[in-house]
Amino acid sequence: MQKGSIRVQTENIFPIIKKFLYSDHEIFIRELVSNAVDATQKLKTYSSLGEVKGDIDNIDINISIDKEKKTLTISDKGVGMTAEEVDKYINQVAFSGAEEFLEKYKGKNEANIIGHFGLGFYSSFMVSDKVEIITKSYQEGAKAVRWECDGSPEYTLEQTEKESRGTDIVLYINEESAEFLETERIQHILEKFCKFLPVPIKFEDKQINNINPAWTKKPADLTPQDYQDFYKELYPFSEAPLFWIHLNVDYPFNLTGILYFPKVKQRFEIQKDKIQLYSNQVFVTDEVKDIVPEFLMLLHGVIDSPDIPLNVSRSYLQGDPNVKKINSYITKKVADKLDEIFKSDRKSFEEKWESLGLFVKYGMITDDKFLEKANKFNLFEDADAGKFYTLDEYRTATETLQKNKEGKLVMLYTTDPVQQNSYIQAAKKKGFVVVKLETIVDAAFINNMEMKWNDVQFVRVDADITDNLIDKGDHVDSVLSKDDQLKLKDMFHLEIPELHVTVEVKGLSTDTLPVIATRPEFMRRMKDMAMNGGGGMGSFYGNLPEEVTLTVNGNHPVYQKILQEENKDKQEKEVRNLADLALLSQGLLKGNELTNFINRSVEMMEGKEKSKIILEV
């Protein structure tokens, strides 16, 4: 029997391993199973090179629990280890056998070795009072050995009996980690980390993994149904995706994967943790913000790359040029795919726009390279005609009518086609084209595109009266006399809490509404920004009263009657109701003001009914 001390740089390595090596203790299963996969892949490599004699068909990795002995065992039928190899790879912490193997067999075969750090095995001490290794090398005539350590630097290494090649890691689970003796807990961890490992993993006599997931195959070998089935495997309860992109690159980095565009039903229920990162089919994390561009975090799917640098826990990305290259590659791949679909099947693209628009607009806001390509396929949907425009198409359709006095294209938009319907219809009568910008990203999209498209100005359709939406510097006088205009303006002077009301009298067409309430574009945007948590100036404007302009259409016939009305009480009620109707269209009539409007309307209706009865009598 050999006894000795594990050779490490510090005597405190085990407390560090137990407490700080991994942020989540369940990671030890991933590390030990990954080591078992490495051992099995090595055996397959040696066999392909003729260095292994005999049959290697049975290569399953088995995980088992013994509640009486309080043990958890991971068993493989891989290359195993000799006593010398145990001493070299186990007793010398952080000397990785995988690294040495990769260097020796580089270029000879696709070894697909997972481990790179040599510390994975020691994660077992996070949950164990004692750990045993019982191993037998594949080499002819090799003797089985047993290694044991109780979490101190002291170990024992001796010969033992073992019939077949491979390694058993036996963990004597400590009291604090009793959860790892529960079947359901282990099942959950295996399904999380080992679901797509390339070697069969069995637990409770059932294989828990798919060894050939779709992303490891060539696109030419997959049907659309294969992609759909794999999506269901990843997200069993999700709706079918809109479409997918198969990533497959081997230079200047290795990357495979499948990204799916999901159907987004609820605009305000967007999750960003649906892309899974793998390294050689081992699940690493779903925190992929450094690898995947921010706007594509809304996608679903899998990315697998052995070239992504990870720290010792394999859970956090480190700064590295490859990460930036992968990020750029994914952006280009997605942009090219969207452009391809737009050109080949625009009708289908338009049908999917409600979901696609979120990804595209988000990308245009956050990524200038994506913006360049997306300008060709980003769409604007007509407010009520069901028609779609690219920016260039919108520009062509509105060239003669929708340029302001500075020569900028004015894009009229609505954030609520139902509530803003009267404004939309008024704009359409002028020949203007109003588009829908009503998603969660549109407020930021508008602000960003005004900076990036310096010849475009966005104006919400209810930001001003229709005649002023496209500022051409024209002014139309009211047909009313100056005295009547002043009288009318005074009648509409309102004192409403939390509202700052400005009144103007203009001469509009007779079929235009008698009063139109508008909210200045700049102030409304600032208020919206504050409401959505925007800081800085947005917070300042958020504390100010709502700004609203009441534009009184002096040419509307109703004012001839109102100005001639001798009953001042009736005159005031009629004016106030017209003003309240306009405020209601902007959602600015609330609380007591709304109650007063309803009561006043009922009272006026009753008054008209009484007058009718008197006249009939």
Automatic annotation (TrEMBL):
GO terms for molecular function: ATP binding; ATP hydrolysis activity; ATP-dependent protein folding chaperone; unfolded protein binding. Gene3D superfamilies: 3.30.230.80, 3.40.50.11260, Heat shock protein 90, C-terminal domain (1.20.120.790), Histidine kinase-like ATPase, C-terminal domain (3.30.565.10). InterPro entries: HATPase_C_sf, HSP90_C, Hsp90_fam, Hsp90_N, Ribosomal_Su5_D2-typ_SF. CDD domains: HATPase_Hsp90-like. ATP binds at E31, N35, D76, M81, S96, G97, T167, R314. Pfam families: HATPase_c_3, HSP90. The keyword Glycoprotein does not apply. Keywords: ATP-binding, Chaperone, Cytoplasm, Nucleotide-binding, Stress response. The keyword Chaperone applies. Coiled coil: none annotated. Signal peptide: none annotated. Belongs to the heat shock protein 90 family. NCBIfam families: PRK05218.1. This is Chaperone protein HtpG.
